Each structure stands twice: as C-alpha cells, then as structure tokens.
Amino acid sequence: MFDRFNRNITYLRISVTDRCNLRCRYCMPEEGVALKHHTEILSFEEITDVVKTGVKLGINKIRLTGGEPLARKNVAELIRMIKAVDGIQDVGLTTNGTLLPQFAEDLWQAGLRRLNISLDTLNNDKYREITRNGELNDVLTGIGIAKKLGFDPIKINFVRIPGVNEADEKEVKQFCIRNELKIRFIRQMDLATGAFSPVEGGEGGNCSICNRLRMTADGKIIPCLFSDVGYSTREYGIEEAFAKALHIKPKQGKISVNHNFYNIGG
User: Fold this and answer.
1) Distance (Å, rounded) from C-alpha 47 to C-alpha 72?
2) Per-residue pLDDT reduced to its tens digit, 11-32
3) 3-state class of 58 per DSSP?
4) pLDDT of 46-64, one tens digit each?
5) Helix (H, G, I), strand (E, B) or coil at 112
6) Residue 50: which CATH number?
7) How far apart are CA 147 and CA 197, in angstroms?
8) Does the pLDDT of residue 188 top 90, yes or no?
9) Which contacts of 81-86 are long-range, i.e. CB under 8 A and separated by 24 or more positions?
10) Is residue 3 part of a domain?
C-alpha cells in the first residue's frame, strides 16, 4: 500500500505491552507510568488478525516492541502465530536484553531470528544509572546465548545521551566488532519538540524512505512516531484503521505530545 507521498508501506511495528522491567532515563519516568488494564491490551489472536489484514494490504515485515516485549507473558507463542501467517517475510524483536537469558531459547524455537538489543554502555555503574535498576551482566549473558543459538542479525542499539555516555561509544563499538554484532547509533530523541535525526547504521529517521506504520498495545494504528493521532482497530475495524492512518501519514515527522517511547515502541 502506498501513502500520499508514494512510499510503499510494508512494515508494521507492534507494541505488545506497555510494561517494562527497566526505567531508562530517556524512555520512562523513574516512578513508572499508569499501566493499561489487561482488557485494553490486544490479545495474541487480535494481533494476529491485524497482521493477517496487514498482509492483504501489503505488509510483509513485523517488529515486536514494547514497553519491553519479553515482559509480555508467552510472547514466543505470539511470534509462532505471526510466523505462520502466509506473506510475512520478516519478524524481528527489539528488547532491552535483560530477560534474554530466560527467554532466548523459547524465541528461537518459535522461529525468531532477528534481534535488536539496547546497550548504551559497558560500564556496570553507568548502566544502572541509565536504566535505574538494570544489571549489565544480564544483557551480556543474553547476547552470548543469542549468538550461540544462531540469531542473525543481532543489532545493538546505542542511544547517545548528551553528558552521560559519549565516552562509552568507542568501547561498545569495539565490543560489537569483536562479537560480530551490528551497531546502530541513535541520537536521543524528543517527541514533544520533534527532535530526531537519522539512525547511524540503520534506516530509521530518514522520512523520505519511511515504509512503516505502528500499532500500540491497545490496538491503535499510528502513522508516525512523531504524530498525535491513532486509529483503534477495535473501534474502526482493522482495515479502516489502517486506511485512516495511511491517509494522514505525514511527509515528515513533527511533534507528539500524546505518545511516548514506552508505549509506541521507539
């Protein structure tokens, strides 16, 4: 399906939960956020129905996000259900990595092969400072397990946080080179002011080639990360929600005061 600017939309990023086990400074308040009731969150069957309709419209690539997607119970089963949808060519998952030691094997058995893992420093104390309660060793252990299982590609997301982790960039890059991981440098964004830039090592942030829509955990199709609108698949029906979001997808992102990274998936 093509938007008003002749961009072929083939990619849907799905937030499967608004919950997260970390409180990263660039993503979530220290006190956490008001969580949605479980009845507001789409079931696996509803998400799979969205994917099936998306495929009919031209979607062939899915990425699961959150919150932290591994905080969603039995998320491997959802991956298995999505992988079974005829027409889906690519399924990936973005995670903070701390739960990978527990769930990497389940993800692999479900058919997942692509991972994006957040890693903003290799300093234990700084990692705890950035995430507020995370343990760096959990992430490193998870990366090791994922590599051993055969996940490929494994991409590392390094968020550049001014005044915090500039000195860590070289060390993390060398870690990725040694371990044959792909690294992407992401400048810290601000939805409310519209501050963003292209991802170094990836295609994100380049509006001219944007091929994605997003869906929140409660089923709203969002045309752009920097957008305040969303269309409920429950209220409008799946196909109509897609159509409405596609129709107003902007040429370039501006600002969003209604959405946050923890509920729209970054």
Assistant:
1) 13
2) 999 999 999 999 998 888 777 7
3) coil
4) 999 999 999 999 999 999 9
5) coil
6) 3.20.20.70
7) 30
8) no
9) 81/44, 81/45, 81/47, 81/48, 82/47, 82/48, 82/51, 83/110, 83/111, 83/112, 85/48, 85/51, 85/52, 85/55, 86/55
10) no
> Strands (DSSP E) along the chain, which ranges?
11-15, 61-65, 90-95, 114-118, 154-160, 182-187, 212-215, 220-222, 231-232
Q: What's the pLDDT band for 263 if we cut at 50, 70, 90? A: low
Distance CA 39, CA 47 (A): 14
The boundaries of the domain holding residue 44 are: 11-264
Neighbours of 150 (CB within 10 A): 8
Q: Quick check: is 35 in a domain?
A: yes
Q: Is the pTM of this model over 0.70?
A: yes
Based on the structure, what is the number of domains in the chain? 1
Query: Model confidence over 76-88: pLDDT tens digits?
Result: 999 999 999 999 9
